[in-house]
Amino acid sequence: MSGYNGFSMSNNAVDAYHNGEMPLSQWTKKAIIYRYHEVCTENDCEVYNLSKVAVKILKEKLLTCTSWHHTSLHYNRTDFYDVDVDVCDSLTNDMVKEWENTKSEKKKESTIERWEVAYLVWYGTRNHPHATEIIETVDFDTSKSYVMTKNGRKMIKANGFRFIKKVN
Q1: The 162-166 sheet, strands edge to edge
Q2: Contact between residue 115 and residue 167 where contact means Cβ atoms under 8 Å apart
Q3: CA spacing 20 to 30 A to 144: which of 6, 44, 112, 154?
């Protein structure tokens, strides 16, 4: 395992960073605009237009998931993103002006569902880790990427987390 910014990740993830791909959380407005100019050659959209657009909108409109890689000591699956060349090449100043005046896309509708879930609780030492699977019934807010359990917040995309069955 190699490291980048202090995190453990696969060699393929390190290569993805070197090719300009990053997890969504790592993309800043400056990085998106810089990468836009690296990969988009057939467009004459000006930098100052993109700099007026909110970073959240730029992430929604210009970035696309290009791959996933294992990260952390527990081999979590992390999606990596890059600027979408097709979107960049079709971009117009009118589109950018519309983005300037747009609020980020609305979050999906929030509904509460009751689920039986399984997740791992880790204990032991770093050199000798042990995990116990916990099965619990929780209320899941469908607009969130996590659930609250008796053991704290658990990410639904984490390794070891799974939905077992919906409870009525």
Answers
A1: 129-141, 112-124, 162-166
A2: yes
A3: 6
